[in-house]
Specification:
Number of domains of chain A: 1
Number of strands of chain A: 15
Distance between the termini of chain B: 21 Å
Distance between the termini of chain A: 17 Å
Number of helices of chain B: 4
Shape of chain B: elongated
Strand content of chain A: over 45%
Number of helices of chain A: 3
Helix content of chain A: 10-25%
Largest sheet of chain A: 7 strands, antiparallel
Oligomer: heterodimer
Structural class of chain A: alpha+beta
Helix content of chain B: 10-25%
Strand content of chain B: 35-45%
Radius of gyration of chain A: 30 Å
Radius of gyration of chain B: 22 Å
CATH topology of chain B: Bactericidal permeability-increasing protein, domain 2
Order of helices and strands of chain B: EHEEEEEHEEHEHEE
Chain lengths: 266, 232
């Protein structure tokens, strides 16, 4: 029998997971990709909150309705020529008493525009995590590590991004000469080219970065564990050694519990 | 039945774990188990707690004494380790404690001439400093001590609390006559309880730092474990 057994039910496990979420720092990510006719560079930050714990023996911690809060900064570059053909005004000659006076050929080569766009939202997901007990240096850690990449329902976010992108594009296109005439058509063309599926396909891989390999640390302790701090000159700190740690989900008692077993020595 | 039962958190510390903690505590702070007066010890240190000598007429500096215990070993219900037949065995929810006590006195023999000399001596040689002037020889005896007891909890709030031990009865083996044994058992029970009052298992140790325990039930002893329930 282990020297110490600590067990928590799903209620307490939910508290522990939420505490772990609060301390989790997810690094900001950035990259670039294609979104319809756009070349988009992006940076994104995210945090994980909430979720209800379902413990499933022998080794699964299911987190349901976990919230991935994210903030995206896009910069879309778009070559207008891809939707509005370049054109040239032909040479126009006018006979005058002094001879023919010709206007030069005028060609319109549509520019590449850049549309900055920020978007923040939250998406819920449900995922299975597995327990991972390991030692790193002088510490013991018990992590719950996500298994696979959960499906993210991004349809609402995609629609919002698409609408926002249309508005942002309209704002950028309005001052460009001649475009005003075709602005509505240009925006409609852009958004229809991208479409919801396009945004979803673009957003999915970005957000998947944040949930793939997601890992919460639910227990972290020094192997040489201080159980009593120094109490004065004649009372030095008291340590015990955490020699071995294991963790599992146990349902044999009729209730699913997260069980931590620890062996110690003086 | 689940470990957490009707609560959300369960902590169980096996008697092996408690004994490891006692070894760690008493090794780091041996003065918790060792007490001595002048002339054995002049000041409290990590190794020993300084106590006053017992004043007694005609004994310069008082009676020098020392008491020390070996690191206690506990056995939780159900009983694993044997106990002397004089003890009834570990009851449900109880525990036994075994240790060895060493009693020491400074067996001094002061000649009248020495004491008279002390009166006329310089100030530094007055009582309190004159024990070494006597012919003194520490005399000690070590006795095995077996006790029965139970856990007691001091709870100060979520995550802050400690578990100690209360001695209900002790037994010294092979002390005769019976009246002397009874006297020594009473004396040692009082001293051992006082010593154990300084030995506590903090909740933090019980949970190996896994979480903050808000105690709702326990501690209880069964299955060789000290058990506590609560919330985080």
């Amino acid at each position: 029998m282990p020297d110490i057994i600590a067990a928590v039910d799903e209620v307490a496990a939910t508290t522990l997971i939420h505490d772990a979420e609060a301390t989790l720092v997810i690094p900001t990510q950035s990259g670039s990709g294609s979104l319809g006719p756009f070349t988009a560079s992006w940076s994104a930050g995210a945090s994980v909150q909430q979720g209800v714990i379902d413990l499933i023996p022998p080794n699964v911690v299911r987190v349901a309705d976990c919230e991935l809060h994210y903030s995206l900064g896009f910069s879309f570059s778009f070559d207008l020529s891809s939707i509005i053909p370049d054109f040239c005004l032909p040479t126009l000659c006018i006979p005058t008493p002094f001879g023919r006076w010709c206007l030069p050929t005028i060609c319109i080569n549509w520019p590449t525009i850049t549309i900055p766009f920020n978007y923040s939202d939250m998406v819920k997901f449900t995922a299975d995590f597995t327990l991972d007990v390991h030692a790193v240096g002088t510490e013991w850690l018990v992590d719950v590590v996500i298994v696979g990449v959960p499906a993210l329902d991004l349809s609402a976010a995609a629609a919002a991004i698409l609408a926002g992108l249309g508005l942002a594009a309209a704002g950028i296109l309005a001052p460009i000469p001649f475009i005003g005439l075709v602005l509505a058509g240009a925006v409609l063309t852009i958004t229809s080219i991208i479409a919801i599926a396009g945004v979803t396909g673009f957003l999915g891989p970005i957000l998947s970065i944040f949930v793939a390999g997601l890992r919460f640390t639910v227990y972290r302790q020094q192997k040489h564990f201080e159980v009593l701090p120094s109490g004065g000159p004649v009372d030095p700190p008291v340590y015990i050694n955490l020699d071995a740690i294991s963790a599992l989900v146990d349902g044999s008692g009729g209730e699913d519990e997260l069980v931590l077993s620890v062996d110690i020595s003086a | 039945m689940s470990l957490t039962q009707a609560d959300h958190v369960f902590l169980g510390v096996h008697e092996k774990g408690v004994n490891e903690f006692l070894v760690a505590l008493c090794t780091a702070r041996p003065h918790l188990l060792s007490y001595a007066s002048d002339p054995f010890v002049g000041a409290t240190s990590v190794a020993v707690t300084h106590m006053a000598a017992i004043p007694f007429p005609g004994v310069p500096g008082g009676l020098g004494w020392a008491v020390s215990f070996s690191i206690p070993e506990v056995d939780f219900f159900p009983q694993t380790l044997p106990l002397p037949p004089q003890l009834p065995g570990i009851g449900v929810g109880g525990l036994s404690i075994r240790t060895k006590v060493t009693l020491m006195v400074n067996c001094a023999e002061c000649q009248k001439r020495d004491r008279e000399g002390a009166r006329g001596a310089p100030r530094d040689d007055r009582p309190g400093k004159d024990v070494p002037r006597c012919k003194a020889e520490p005399t000690e005896v070590s006795l095995d001590v077996f006790g029965l007891g139970r856990p007691v909890v001091s709870y100060f709030g979520p995550g802050t609390g400690e578990i100690g031990f209360r001695v209900d009865a002790i037994e010294l083996v092979d002390v005769t006559p019976d009246e002397l044994e009874s006297l020594l058992e009473c004396l040692i029970r009082m001293v051992l309880q006082a010593v154990l009052d300084t030995v506590h298992l903090p909740f933090r140790a019980l949970s190996a730092g896994a979480f903050t325990l808000a105690l709702t039930r326990g501690p209880e002893i069964s299955d060789d474990q000290l058990k506590a329930w609560g919330t985080v």
